[in-house]
Amino acid sequence: MEITLEVVRSVFVDVLEGRMTREAADRWAYAITRESESGTLTFAPHEEMARIWAGVMYLYGIDTMEEPGEYLHTEEDIRTAMQEKVGGR
After folding, report:
1. 30 within 8 A of 71, measured Cβ to Cβ
2. What is the pLDDT of residues 54-76, one digit of tens each?
3. Going by C-beta distance under 8 Å and a sequence separation of 6 or more, which residues neighbour residue 81?
4. Any long-range contacts for 22-28 (C-beta under 8 Å, 24+ apart)?
5. Would you say 7 and 48 are in contact if contact means Cβ atoms under 8 Å apart?
6. Which of 22, 36, 45, 68 lies at a C-alpha separation of 20 to 30 Å from 56?
């Protein structure tokens, strides 16, 4: 499986724009980590591997609750993380 910076960025955008739930983004990121563990994940371009992985790791846990009904990460936190890790608006 190949993963790109654009794909990771699109998951952030989908969460922020309400097209994907945080829970779905977390499950997506979990699936990516499983691919990595099995040795079947490739990064494109390879030189962006660190940024791609940082984005995936942030998304893996994006659904963590601070308390019932309150997410640990605010929408502003998510937007800032997207900009810092994978770029974007």
Report:
1. no
2. 999 999 999 999 999 999 999 99
3. 12, 55, 58, 73
4. 22/62, 22/63, 22/71, 23/63, 25/59, 25/62, 25/63, 26/59, 26/60, 26/61, 26/62, 26/63, 28/59
5. no
6. 68
